[in-house]
Amino acid sequence: MYRKSITLLLIAMLIVAALPLVGQSTAAAEGEALSIGLSVSTLDDPMIAGLRDGAQTAASDLSVNLVVMSADGSVDTELANVQALIDQGVNVLVIAPVDPVGSQAAIAAANDAGIPVLLTGFDPNTAMQDVTVVSTVVPNEVQGGWLAASVLCEAVGSGTALELVGDAEDTVAQARSEGFNMFMSQQCADATVVQMATAGLDRDTLINNFIDELNTQTINGVFAYNDTTTLAALEASIIARKGGIAFVGFDASDDAMAALQQGRLQAIVTPVGWLLGTTGVQAANAYLNGTELPATIQVQLGVLNVESTAMFRGGPRSGSFEGDPRSGSFEGGPGSGNFEGGPGSGNFEGGPGSGNFEGGPGSGNFEGGPGSGNFEGGPASGNFE
Predict the structure, then answer these.
(1) Most CB atoms within 10 A, among 134, 180, 262, 302?
(2) Are strands 267-270 and 302-304 parallel, antiparallel or unpaired?
């Protein structure tokens, strides 16, 4: 059985999802100082602010110049910012897009200027077919589902866990469900998993259906694939006067964070902006130095719970900080290099809490990875070429 409190947020791993591309910049070839442009959608989102902070730390570690510009949620501003970065002569662009469709104009401008582009922050899926992107840095949603299950397993023991199942067309929800069920079947056999469909349900119907489930059977824990379904189920449990249920959900929205800090949620699994930023810059630097990159780079998600948010006393690599735990690195948190296991983590046994992990960009303890010049291995190995 796993530790009662998983306070660990996870470091980045690179996984091959498609045929790689190869790049070599003139600046890199001539030994000039490299310049990376980072265009972010907004700095009002704590996760994106953390992405910026992680990128700045990675750039400092690699001794490259990083120029950051925020689009403030506007695709028009994003296009103007990207054009300004092109005019400044950046060698590569890392873009956290405002919108998977609207942001194509900015990427196309970079393509026309011959500037390579990496995306980070979310998976645009097939929305960016009309532009060229070197690589996309995305959260490993299957690993996130595995991680959520490891937390919920500890809470329910041999009881019953209810999975709220999303739309079959929602690739993120399905990947999270895959990871959840993988862990529950392999590592939590004493628990019983039941399912409730939520696809196409409005909030009121979802709440009513969940109340019916609670009145029909004893539910000890709930797995929800996003913050909307998590909070609706939580409200239903209050209406039904059913206490003692552990809720583990996804995505650290303001309302979800409030519920977590009030002790109503067991944990939130969420993408880690810090790692998306560090990995984006590390990969961009590697590409400029001639390294072959996979088309998709996956970074691990992390867990926020009451204990881990209370531990947020440090910004990146510090020991004392007051701020939003979604934005940065703290002890046991994103970028700390202190975690164990999960699908795609490279070297593990049994998942979070049970195995040994070495490597991955941003961990501070790896062989290979962007910028090191020593990439040998395969998908999820931590050492890749």
Answers:
(1) 302
(2) antiparallel
Q: Give the pLDDT band of residue 323 (cuts 50, 70, 90).
A: low
Give the model's confidence band at 306: pLDDT under 50 very low, under 70 low, under 90 confident, else very high. confident
Compute the average pLDDT of residues 152-180: 95
For the chain, the structural domain boundaries read 26-138+272-298
Q: Directed axis angle between helix 227-239 and helix 203-216, to 10°?
A: 50
- 147 contacts: CB under 8 Å, gap ≥ 6: 6, 10, 179, 269, 300, 301, 302, 303, 342, 351, 352
**Residue 207 contacts residue 231 (beta carbons within 8 Å):** no
C-alpha dihedral, 327 to 332 to 338 to 340, nearest 10°: -100
Secondary element (H or E) of residue 267: strand 267-270
Q: For residue 154, what are the CA distances in angstroms to 131, 184, 234, 332?
A: 45, 11, 19, 19
- Which CATH number is associated with domain 26-138+272-298? 3.40.50.2300
Q: Where are the alpha helices (DSSP H) in the chain?
A: 26-30, 46-62, 75-87, 104-113, 141-156, 171-187, 203-216, 227-239, 254-261, 273-288, 306-310
Two tokens, residue 306: 């009451």
Half-sphere exposure of 332 (CA within 13 A, CB side): 15
Cβ neighbours for 152, distance < 8 A, ≥ 6 positions apart? 161, 221, 222, 223, 246, 248, 266
Q: Hey, is 120 helix, strand or coil?
A: strand
Q: Calculate mean pLDDT across residues 274-289.
A: 94
Question: Which strand ranges, in their side-by-side order, compose the sheet holding 302-304?
Answer: 192-197, 160-165, 221-223, 246-250, 267-270, 302-304
Q: How far apart are CA 80 and CA 73, in angstroms?
A: 13
Q: pTM of the prediction?
A: 0.77
Indicate the Cα dihedral angle 118, 137, 122, 95, nearest 10°.
-20
Pick the more confident residue, 336 or 111. Answer: 111
